[in-house]
Each structure stands twice: as structure tokens, then as C-alpha cells.
Design goal:
Chain lengths: ~170, ~425
């Protein structure tokens, strides 16, 4: 394994562990930490054994961890923007690690792009969170809007995905 | 270019959908915010996917290189879309990239290039390692789509072949052929004719050049005497490169040494304007008639680069040697003498009057030390058999010398010359 691949894998693993360890464990939120821990474990194992699906598994686990903790009466730690930033960083570094196993990649570019994407996503999440705090929407309205957003997002992704995979040069997952 | 979804696309889409679903389940906007942001990344990445058509070409300035030298190779990329940032895996087999222009080297053979147009050019300064024929390419270009959601790659087919010639060492002395031919060269011929080297004197005959009259001797003898001279001629040199090695042993390096010595001899003899020929004893038994000139030497060297360790078909080898050494020529055999058949071939050449010399390649460094008494005995018998083979060749007047690894190329030549001189003295 190339040095860039190793470094990226180590960075992704450290960030994953840091994300799990920073989650509170009081009032049953340890369940969230457990789910996140399993995700981190899967990520580390996947990075060691070369299974790229572990990135998806870990990312889903971190989102579920956030969902569990936010459902319980505990203070969210780390803050939402930091969680978004960490998740994106973990995904970017882990993906770069897999890319660097099959070809040469520039470590500086990997770092710049990962940090850039993560900071942008963290910033967007924080802005949206601030906007949401100001509004009084809750209950049935939030759920209805969420469901609609989910359906629209899923449909959009499927549509664009099919279009992008339709060409003769595109391969399947 | 081929587009393959990167693991980050899978992760962002799945986690984004899970985040939206989880937000609905727990009734908190937090997971939806993160999920939405991840989905937004994926959607932007998916919309920004373009799969350009790309062509990559490697153009070496010279198709013939010498190992250790530095040569320029141009890389040209052309696409129907704006290229952006990309990595080009150059596919340069056994070549060191010394410096680059138009791109940044990432790793040994990967170039990072950026271009805001549809073409990108880079110039590489490469230094080949080892000799032989090389395939250029294939060149593989990697790029990421917008936000790295897809990994784009394109592999261009092999870009042709080039020949890397071995580095030739300089020889201070050479083994000259005993017989010369009719072309002008630097060798003093045994024959009489016009030249600068004094040979003998004889009485003047009608038609002799008056400038050849030796007036001092003529005045003493009271009749006209003329000087005879040796003309300067060149000779035909045929190199016999034996590339057969025993399978399962580490003796393949012997072929490398043989080829290097052959290249050195070719260069040195070409400088003395000798005509050069070649017979390679490998699977194909290539042979080239002796000829002169730099292009002929290049042709021989390029043929030499195709030599690969393999088994010899002896019937073809005998025919090749007989054809290549038809005229009076000196055959220099470069061989590890592992096969008695080759000794037989050298014998038959000698019997048919061909001036032949043997440079034996040292194989001992490739041999492992015997581990038990039986192997030790076997090794001793093998060494004795080889010594007997050498003695038999030497007893027929064939100069033979062992070129030990570590010795410069001059050493075996000097030994052969010494051997020939002592043989002449012995014959009186």
C-alpha cells in the first residue's frame, strides 16, 4: 500500500474514533455511541482489508448515531456542523485511501479537497441549523415536509443516476 | 473515458437518504440537515459528470536510446472537453523520469497535469535502465469528476517500441583478425601492395612505380630495387553470442554480460573500420552478414537487443554460422560454454579454417554453494569437465579466456592477444 493510502486510512480511522468518543453517553445516548462505534470498527476493518463498502456502512452508522442522540434529552456533542465536517472528512480520506491503492494520487490535493469540501458542508449545515432555530415549524408539518423532501431527493438522485449510467462508457456499481 | 462511481458517492447518497429518513423517525431536523447536505453533494457531483473522449500519445525524440543516457519524451493529451486536473500513468518500463516540464511528477511514473483547454502537453526527460526492446505505454489517464463522485480513467494502447542499447565501455586494445579483406582499413595486411608499412625489397620490374625505388640499395647493388609495402586493410568480425542458459538457474545474467561485451566489441571494431557481422544463438539464431558503417552497427545492435535466454536449435545455429562466416572472417564467440554442442561448433569452425576466439563468461557467481558431499563431488566433476573442454579447444589453437565478473572488458581481450602471441611463438 502506498504511503498516501496508509496516511489517508490512518487519518480517516482517527477521525472516526474521535467522532464516536465525543458522543455523550448519559440518558441512554450510549446506544448512539454504540452504533457509531460499530461504524468506526467497520470502517477500520474495511480500510485494512480493502472493502470500500465499509465507507458507506460507517457513514450510515454516524448519521444513525446522530439521530439516536438527537432523539434523547442530552446536549448534542460535538455540535451539528462539527459532526457534518467530521463525517465528510472521514468519507473523503477513506475514499482517497482506496483511490491511492490502485494509482498515484497527490497527498496535498487530497488534503486540500477533503478539508475544502468538509468546511463547506459544515458551514452549510450550520447556516441551515441557524435558520431552522429561527422558525417555529414542528410536529406534523415538519414530518410532512421531510417526507416530501425525502421523496423528491430520492427521485432526483435516481433520475440523474440513471442518466449518468446510460452512456456506453459508464460502468455499473 | 470510463466513469466509475467512487465510494464517496455511495456513502453520500445512502447516508443522505438514511439521514432524511431518521429525521422523520425521530422528529428532529439534525439528521435531515446532515443527510440533506450529503445528498446535495451527491446531486451536484452527479449533475457535473461528463465523460470526455480522450487520446494520449507518447512521442520519444529518439526510438533508439542508450542505457543511462537522458532522452526527451513528449506526452500529448487531447480531449473533446476541457481537461482540468488529471493524473497520467506513463507506462514507462524500466525508465527513470529525471525531470518534467508541463506537469508535476507524483510517484515514479505518474504525472499530475492541469489544463484549462482541450489539449495538454508535457515533456519528460527520461533515463532508461538496462538494455533491450521496450514497449512504450500504455498511457493511463485518471481524473475525478466534479466533487470526485466518479473516477474517470482512459487507457491508450501501446505507443510503439523503442530500443535501449547497452552502455558500451571503451576498449584500449583489440584482437585483430588474422586475415584481412580488400577494403581499406587500419589493419596491416599480410599481402603486398600500396601502403605505408615496409614489407620487403625486390628487384625492379617493368611497370613498378618509380617512387617505390630504393635508391640507396639500388646504388649499392648496381641494379634497381624497389620497396614493397603492406597495404592497410580492414577485417571481417563475426560475433557469436550464445544466449542459452540452463533453466532453473540464475545464469541469465550471463546473457546480459555477453550482450554488453558484444556491444563494446562492435563499437571498438567499428572504429577501426572493420566489417561487422552477428550470429545470435538463441531460439531464432539471427545472423547478419558483415557490413560497414554506423547504420549497419545500429542494425546489429538492434538485433542484439532481441537476444533472450532460451534453448538453441543447433541445426539452425550451424547453418547461421556457416553463412555469416563465409568470407575470411574472425569469429569471436561470447559464451558461458555450458553446452558441449557449442564447443563442437567452435571445433568445426576451426577445422574449416575460420579464425575463431572464445571469451568464456564466468558463471560461478550464479552457482549456489554445494550443500552436501554428493553435490560437492558433482560440482568438482562439472568443473573438471569444463576445464577439459577448455583444454581441448586450446589444444586446437583456439584462443580461449575466461572473463571473470568484475574484470573490465579489456582483460579478456588482452589475454586472448597474449595467448595468440605465445601460440605463434610455440609454433615457431
Amino acid at each position: 500500500m502506498a504511503t498516501t493510502a496508509r496516511l489517508s486510512a490512518v487519518l480517516a480511522s482517527i477521525l472516526a474514533v474521535a467522532l464516536v468518543l465525543s458522543v455523550p453517553t448519559a440518558n441512554g445516548s450510549g446506544l448512539g455511541a454504540l452504533v457509531g462505534g460499530i461504524g468506526a470498527l467497520l470502517l477500520v476493518a474495511g480500510l485494512i482489508y480493502g472493502v470500500s463498502a465499509s465507507i458507506t456502512a460507517a457513514t450510515v452508522a454516524f448519521v444513525l448515531q446522530l439521530a439516536i442522540v438527537s432523539a434523547l434529552p442530552v446536549a448534542l456533542s460535538p455540535p451539528l456542523w462539527a459532526q457534518a465536517l467530521l463525517i465528510v472528512l472521514i468519507v473523503e480520506f477513506a475514499t482517497a485511501s482506496f483511490a491511492a491503492r490502485s494509482r498515484q494520487v497527490d497527498p496535498i490535493l487530497v488534503l486540500v479537497r477533503s478539508v475544502g469540501t468538509a468546511v463547506t458542508v459544515g458551514g452549510v449545515v450550520q447556516v441551515l441549523a441557524l435558520l431552522l432555530e429561527g422558525s417555529a415549524m414542528s410536529g406534523v408539518l415538519v414530518r410532512a415536509m421531510g417526507l416530501a423532501a425525502l421523496i423528491v431527493a430520492a427521485g432526483w438522485v435516481t433520475l440523474i443516476w440513471r442518466r449518468s449510467s446510460a452512456g456506453p462508457s459508464a460502468s455499473r456499481w | 473515458m470510463n466513469a466509475n462511481p467512487s465510494p464517496r458517492l455511495r456513502a453520500y447518497v445512502t447516508a443522505g437518504l438514511v439521514g432524511l429518513g431518521a429525521a422523520l423517525a425521530v422528529g428532529d431536523p439534525g439528521p435531515a440537515l446532515i443527510g440533506g447536505a450529503l445528498l446535495a453533494l451527491a446531486v451536484v457531483g452527479l449533475t457535473g459528470l461528463v465523460t470526455p473522449t480522450l487520446s494520449a500519445r507518447l512521442d520519444p525524440v529518439s526510438l533508439s536510446m542508450v542505457e543511462g543516457g537522458e532522452y526527451l519524451v513528449a506526452l500529448h493529451l487531447e480531449s473533446d472537453q476541457t481537461l482540468g486536473a488529471m493524473y497520467a500513468d506513463l507506462g514507462l518500463d524500466r525508465m527513470d523520469v529525471v525531470s518534467t516540464e508541463g506537469g508535476r511528477l507524483v510517484g515514479a511514473h505518474t504525472l499530475y497535469m492541469t489544463s484549462t483547454s482541450r489539449v495538454a502537453d508535457a515533456v519528460l526527460n527520461v533515463s532508461p535502465r538496462g538494455w533491450g526492446r521496450r514497449e512504450l505505454g500504455p498511457v493511463t489517464v485518471y481524473a475525478d469528476s466534479l466533487l470526485g463522485m466518479f473516477e474517470l480513467s482512459h487507457t491508450s494502447l501501446q505507443q510503439g517500441q523503442l530500443v535501449v542499447l547497452p552502455e558500451e565501455s571503451t576498449l584500449r586494445r583489440l584482437l585483430n583478425p588474422l586475415e584481412t579483406n580488400l577494403h581499406v582499413g587500419e589493419l596491416v595486411s599480410n599481402r603486398r601492395g600500396s601502403g605505408s608499412e615496409f614489407a620487403d625489397m625486390r628487384p625492379y620490374q617493368h611497370g613498378d612505380d618509380p617512387r617505390a625505388i630504393n635508391w640507396r640499395v639500388s646504388s649499392r647493388a648496381r641494379s634497381l630495387w624497389v620497396n614493397e609495402r603492406h597495404p592497410e586493410r580492414n577485417g571481417d568480425i563475426v560475433l557469436l553470442v550464445d544466449a542459452q542458459v540452463e533453466s532453473g538457474t540464475n545464469t541469465e545474467f550471463v546473457v546480459d554480460r555477453s550482450v554488453r561485451m558484444a556491444a563494446t566489441l562492435l563499437r571498438a571494431h567499428a572504429r577501426r573500420r572493420h566489417r561487422l557481422g552477428l550470429v545470435t544463438l538463441d531460439g531464432f539464431c539471427r545472423w547478419i552478414y558483415p557490413g560497414m558503417g554506423e547504420s549497419h552497427r545500429r542494425h546489429i545492435l538492434e538485433q542484439l537487443m532481441s537476444v533472450a535466454p532460451s534453448k538453441v536449435r543447433w541445426e539452425a545455429a550451424q547453418r547461421a554460422v556457416a553463412r555469416a562466416a563465409k568470407r575470411p572472417a574472425m569469429v569471436i564467440a561470447l559464451t558461458p560454454l555450458l553446452d558441449p554442442n557449442l564447443a563442437g561448433l567452435i571445433h568445426s569452425m576451426r577445422r574449416s579454417g575460420i579464425d575463431v576466439a572464445v571469451i568464456e563468461m564466468d558463471v560461478e557467481p550464479a552457482l549456489t554453494a554445494p550443500t552436501d558431499d554428493a553435490r560437492s563431488l558433482g560440482r568438482r566433476i562439472w568443473i573438471m569437465e569444463r576445464e577439459r573442454l577448455r583444454d581441448r579447444l586450446a589444444s586446437e589453437g583456439i584462443p580461449i579466456t575466461l572473463w571473470r565478473s568484475g574484470d573490465p572488458a579489456d582483460v579478456p581481450i588482452a589475454r586472448l592477444e597474449q595467448w595468440r602471441t605465445s601460440w605463434r611463438r610455440r609454433l615457431g
